[in-house]
């Protein structure tokens, strides 16, 4: 009995070690995939760290016709590539933390209602706002619908962002909202920078064959 007990204890110890090792590896993988790139203002730098991301944005561009530089500029403004980004909480009496102003979350800062619509229309029940792949596909879907509903070109970063920020129904009122106009101009400027940067590294990224899917 003692021999069996020792063998059982030894087996359990090995299983715990294997499980611990697996959890550590899983944590490191998640951390590596989810951490914010070092230089979020440089598209070439972003993709040098996150080559999978380049595959995702190119897939979105091919599927929806939404330019890569637009996708990046939207995410830069919305979350600065923070996968867990949320709006800051409102404060009562300027001190006491209160509720958040919206349900925006993740890379794209999509709100719950619009995200649910995206999942339903695209048959993606497991899509999550904390996943880059899903987030850029969401941006592609949204800009495509903006193009259909408001007749705004997907190349028109300025107006596409206003529709993204304000919603399709409220887009018509943007001219009286100076704050939104200024933000949209920033996004447009950042998009132009990304586009210029990509022209210098896109050839290398496109011919990289060491990751295939």
Structure description:
This protein has 213 residues and is mainly alpha-helical. The protein has 2 domains: 1-34; 37-206, Lysozyme (Orthogonal Bundle). The chain has helices at 2-34, 43-49, 51-64, 68-78, 112-121, 132-150, 157-166, 178-206, and strands at residues 91-92, 96-97. The chain has a two-stranded antiparallel sheet with strand order 1-2. β1 (91-92) and β2 form a beta hairpin. The chain is globular.
Question: What keywords describe this structure?
Answer:
two-stranded antiparallel sheet; Lysozyme; 213 residues; 2 domains; mainly alpha
Number of domains: 2
Which architecture of the largest domain does the CATH hierarchy give at level 2?
Orthogonal Bundle
CATH class of the largest domain: Mainly Alpha
How many angstroms separate the termini?
53 Å
Specify the biggest β-sheet. 2 strands, antiparallel
Q: How many beta-strand segments? A: 2
CATH level 3 topology of the largest domain: Lysozyme
Cα-atom Rg, whole angstroms?
A: 22 Å
Order of helices and strands: HHHHEEHHHH
Give average pLDDT, whole number.
Answer: 86
Helix segment tally: 8
Class from secondary-structure proportions:
mainly alpha
What characteristic shape results from the CA principal axes? globular
Strand content: under 5%
**Low-confidence region ranges:** 20-32
Helix content: 55-70%
Side-by-side strand order of the widest sheet: 1-2
